Amino acid sequence: MGNRPLDKLNNVLNESVLVRLKGSREFRGILQGYDVHMNLTLEDAEELVDGVVTRQIGTVVVRGDNVVYVSP
Amino acid sequence: MGNRPLDKLNNVLNESVLVRLKGSREFRGILQGYDVHMNLTLEDAEELVDGVVTRQIGTVVVRGDNVVYVSP
Amino acid sequence: MGNRPLDKLNNVLNESVLVRLKGSREFRGILQGYDVHMNLTLEDAEELVDGVVTRQIGTVVVRGDNVVYVSP
Amino acid sequence: MGNRPLDKLNNVLNESVLVRLKGSREFRGILQGYDVHMNLTLEDAEELVDGVVTRQIGTVVVRGDNVVYVSP
Amino acid sequence: MGNRPLDKLNNVLNESVLVRLKGSREFRGILQGYDVHMNLTLEDAEELVDGVVTRQIGTVVVRGDNVVYVSP
Amino acid sequence: MGNRPLDKLNNVLNESVLVRLKGSREFRGILQGYDVHMNLTLEDAEELVDGVVTRQIGTVVVRGDNVVYVSP
Amino acid sequence: MGNRPLDKLNNVLNESVLVRLKGSREFRGILQGYDVHMNLTLEDAEELVDGVVTRQIGTVVVRGDNVVYVSP
Fold it and tell me: Contact E5/G65, CB-based, under 8 Å?
């Protein structure tokens, strides 16, 4: 079913997403990959703390257990 | 049995739900999908902090381990 | 054995239960379903914070890892 | 081996136990059942906070991940 | 290999051990049993908080996820 | 798929990475190995707290559940 | 592959390691054994809090989920 959470991530591969992590950190970047743990690969990512861009981080592999939500 | 927790989520697909997360965050949106981890896909979602709408977020994939409850 | 924890939940299906969650939140409602993770479906539920009813919430699916105890 | 932790719980079925939970909560009651997650069923239970009885709770199903220890 | 962590616990069965738990609690007692989760059975145990004996607790079944370390 | 999170780690073996841990600790070092839990082996690593190098640590094996993200 | 995290632990058996735990506790000792959970057996161990030796603890079995990193 195309609306299952991991299918939805598959649908937005190569698109820009906002990734909210536990704590106050967010990433905005291009979703390049994911797996069943919701580990994520982002490209051209920037890190935001409290909504302010704090770092241009480029490529980043995020461990899934830190993820609160992903929004395309 | 139609009253098992995941069956109940299945019964309210395409309906509006309130999703309470750990911490003070909630989402209200249309439940489009779920899986056994209680990962959720919401559409037309808005984010609430302490009951106040803070963001129109559209589509969002929530990682299940953040969920406290889902209420249709 | 009818006294194993999940059997006990089975015995009180359709009865009123008190569900204590981590933090200060409780639900009182009719237990309509459960699964091996202790995910719960309640109907006619009310939410209590510090023992005071704060919300009539109707149907609610609670994710099991938030549960401290269930008392019929 | 009768001294493995779950065997020990089996040995004290129908006896009074003290159950220490994470945080400052304890239960004293008759151990009626348990499972491999250390989910517990207690009967005639009372809840103690900081060593003081705060509630006569009767039957209670405790989710195992809250348990620190069980002492007969 | 006799030095693997669970083998080491097996080697000290029926001996006195110090069990450090998350938070400031420790137990000293005779290790009577254990399992793969590091659930432990202690006999003739005493509870220490900040290094001070606070309770003679006799037999106690400790849930493994609370354990920081066990020292014979 | 070469963009899956663990594939991405494989692609940067023997390269310098920044590893952000839960809390305020980071490591910078050469990624020598990883596994499915995102346990990591770093060589020539230095530890940073709040962005300041606090220790030259050489070889270090990081347990995966502490990892927030890895960035090449 | 000899650089995978558990292989690396295998390579330093019988050598002195520094084990950083969650919180401010560290152990220095001889790594005698480990398993897939990163449970560890140390011999001739000393406990450090904030970098200061607080206890000569001899043999210690550390439960893996407390480990942040191991450094030979």
Answer: no
